Amino acid sequence: MDLRVTPLGVQSQAVDKLREAIVSGHFQPGQRLVEAELCRLLGISRGSVREALRRLEGERLVVITPNRGPSVTELSWEEAVQIYDVRRLLEGEAAALAARRATAAQREEMEAALEAFEAAVAAEDALGRVGATACFYDLVLAACGNAVVDEILRGLHARINLLRSRSMSRQGRAPESARELRAILAAIRDRAPAAARKAAMLHVQAACAAAKEAMAERRVA
Amino acid sequence: MDLRVTPLGVQSQAVDKLREAIVSGHFQPGQRLVEAELCRLLGISRGSVREALRRLEGERLVVITPNRGPSVTELSWEEAVQIYDVRRLLEGEAAALAARRATAAQREEMEAALEAFEAAVAAEDALGRVGATACFYDLVLAACGNAVVDEILRGLHARINLLRSRSMSRQGRAPESARELRAILAAIRDRAPAAARKAAMLHVQAACAAAKEAMAERRVA
DNA sequence: ATCATAGGATTGTCAAACAATCCGAAGCTA
DNA sequence: TAGCTTCGGATTGTTTGACAATCCTATGAT
């Protein structure tokens, strides 16, 4: 077991901070990220900033246009649909694998996370909801045992967040969402891969539909 | 239509050359990539080399260990299996979408590419085979119309290539492979998404099994 | 009003430097 | 000889400064 504690280089911190700033909407999609500006904000040199930006480019959170530099990725609705398509497949797979492989302890943790989510829904605690959702997802992805699925889905979630910064609301859908997650967990507990896959795909499908509606509202607003 | 011709900055070229060197096996998996060395080989500055390496890290072709620097990714068999799992899903999806969306012209091109592949198989032209395969894949991915699937699969193919550098042989499987591809194309021509998905998944499954055998041979050798 | 031009802002790239870290090899000890 | 310590070279992480190439904008000319 490796208990190394790395002093966490300047760049890694920069990447984390920038990613956080982007997914949280502090930097709006389309906004240009001027290197000199980021140097000032982060207190690091241009070389490090550029490397950090390259990493975020790899995560598709930033687009670097030649001779124009970096800006926050703008996600078209068309591309968002494509992402949801892939998510449907991969989250279905992840759920199926989790149903087959999750240990008893992991099932317990999922149950706890889901209860936390339901509590947050009842309390209309938006922040708690996203935290609990993330926790639930982490557990499923850990249980599925496929690091590649994990890695890709993390990336896709971050990218979808680029949309959500504005259409966050939709809290009306939370109860449905809770029911969908519960269905997934039920299938995982029953060790029913096919059912888990179906439930997870349904959940993504619903999320996509909800995003579409939110998008339409935004469009007219 | 944008017919801009970009002078193609130093870094982009560096990334391309390094990627080529890696997937072609010129740099072996696990080999360390010393920055100063790459500066000499590429004739560019350290800053540019480092940015190029960051990009390749994003493509998972290079691993950068803190305070040890970059080296060519070593793909474990375990991880390769996970990649094949995802490929099965996504190539199935791509084939299904292509079956639904491909234009007549695209079907013709696929037919041509497949015939080229079969010709290369008959002529035992290994290089021609990989070229024709790549071409066929490009056409299917273009026809499927999902840029996210395209992008992810390209990445996964490159990563699987990290394995193949040694286990390239397996030319005995080429005729089977040709039959599998033909089955995919047949389904696409019939506009039968379900059949196309099934055929594509079968193809990946077979490729995975073949890789496993090649791996086992290597292991004992 | 339209076009050309100039100037500022920004990126792309290079060079040089230095501290921190890692790794191997020499030397010392038992 | 085996094992431990120490030392020094190699390599990375990061900074600073510089300059050409490119883009954008505002100014000025027709």
UniProtKB/TrEMBL annotation, chains A, B:
Taxonomy, superkingdom: Bacteria
SMART domains: FCD (SM00895), HTH_GNTR (SM00345)
GO molecular function, one term: DNA-binding transcription factor activity
Pfam families in UniProt: FCD, GntR
Keywords associated with the record: DNA-binding, Transcription, Transcription regulation
Keyword Aminoacyl-tRNA synthetase appears in the UniProt entry: no
HTH gntR-type domain ranges (all copies): 8-75
PROSITE patterns: HTH_GNTR (PS50949)
Matches recorded under SUPFAM superfamilies: GntR ligand-binding domain-like, Winged helix' DNA-binding domain
Protein name: GntR family transcriptional regulator
Gene source species: Muricoccus nepalensis
